[in-house]
Every structure is written in structure tokens, then in C-alpha cells.
Amino acid sequence: MAFIKVIHPQEAEGKLAEIYRLVRGPGGQVDQVLQIHSLRPHTLQGHMALYKASLHDTRNTLPVWYLECFGVLVSRLNECAYCDVHHGTGLKRLLRREKLDYAAYDAAIERVRLGEKGTSPFTARERAGLEYGLKLTLDPGAVTQADIDRLRRKEFSDGQILEINQVTAYFAYANRTVTGLGVSTEGEKLGLAPPDTEESDWHHE
Q: Which of 1, 97, 177, 195 is the most interior residue, by most CB within 10 Å?
């Protein structure tokens, strides 16, 4: 039960009902992280635009599974069980497609979170990106040019550094939306993403 009033899809009318139609996932589910915006539908539109741009835009060049690792890491750092379980489930599905071992990557994310040594199965490059995400989450005021230069030395382009920055920042936003308003996974199927939506559908009035 959320901390504030929520207008559920079966109760929605007008603009909210249309937005729900656009953001529903497989089986017609509208995740509760989206329903929590129902009293201010324009913020739901903003949330979805940011989510899709940071994680699922085809112009990003880092793999989606790697960006999802930031979602799991940042959500754990922020103690957001909702996003952790949703994006952990999504990460498991993505890694299965790549024929990669989810359990090994999940354990490696935990090692990053705890500051433990060792990179496997992440490469040293991938671990460096995650460490930036950790620092940006826990101590953003301490991030300096040196942190960016370190990522450049690991052969991240500036555009890829921006991708890492944006997905980390997105989860800071999503985690606080969820935990601050009491969103839960009760009754939800986990790890389902809404279908791709044409940019023209996400105009702001």
C-alpha cells in the first residue's frame, strides 16, 4: 500500500488512461513505480522519458545488461528493494540472452557494493565504471575530474561516461520516488519493461 493516493489503471480516465496505455508492459501491467505518479501524470511522462533515454535508447553504446548492473548496484546502495528486485530480475533475463552467468555477476555487484577486491566476471574496465557509479551514489560531492580521467584511461568515451552518469542518476531518482512514497512489488510480475515507444508519443503539453 503506497503512502499516498494512487489512481489505478482500471480507475483512470482521460489523459492518465492514455498514458497508462502507452506505458503498460507485457500482459497490460503498469508497474506501481509508474502508478505512483497518477495524481500528476506529467511526472509519469517525465519519468518514462528519463528511464527510456538512460537505459533503453538505441543510441547508447554500452550494453543494456551492463547499464542494468548500475540499476542493481545503485538500488542496493540506496536500500531500494523494489528497484533491486525488478532490475535484478531484468538483469537475469538479459544475461541469460548473452549466455552469461547471473549468479556470478550478482556476486560481483555485491563485491563492488562492499568495496571488496576482485573484478571477475567483470573486466577491469567494467568494474571501474561501477566504482564511479558507487562513488557518485554515496559521495557525489567527492567526484572530481580525476574520476573521469580514470574512466577515460579505461577506454570509456566521454559519451559512454555520460551514459554511466545518467543511468546512475536515474536510479537515484527512481529509488527515492519508490522509497519516499511506499511503493511495493505486491501483486506485480517482476522485471517487465514497457514496450518501446516512439519519441513523438512523449510530448509534453
A: 177
- Confidence (pTM): 0.91
Domain total in the chain:
1
Of 16, 44, 17, residue with least CA distance to 174: 44
Q: What is the mean pLDDT of residues 17-45?
A: 94
The DSSP secondary-structure symbol of 23 reads H
Range of the domain at 169: 9-195
**3 lies in a domain?**
no
Model confidence over 92-136: pLDDT tens digits?
A: 999 999 999 999 999 999 999 999 999 999 999 999 999 999 999
182 conformational bin, left if phi > 0, alpha if psi -120 to 50, beta if neither: left
Residue 19, domain member (yes or no): yes
In a domain, 201, yes or no: no
What's CA 92's distance to the chain center, in Å?
Answer: 14
Average pLDDT over the chain, rounded to an integer: 92
Cβ distance 109 to 72 under 8 Å? yes
CATH number of the domain at 16, please: 1.20.1290.10
Ramachandran category for residue 100: left, alpha or beta (phi over 0 → left; psi -120 to 50 → alpha): beta
Question: Looking at the domain assignment, is residue 2 inside a domain?
Answer: no
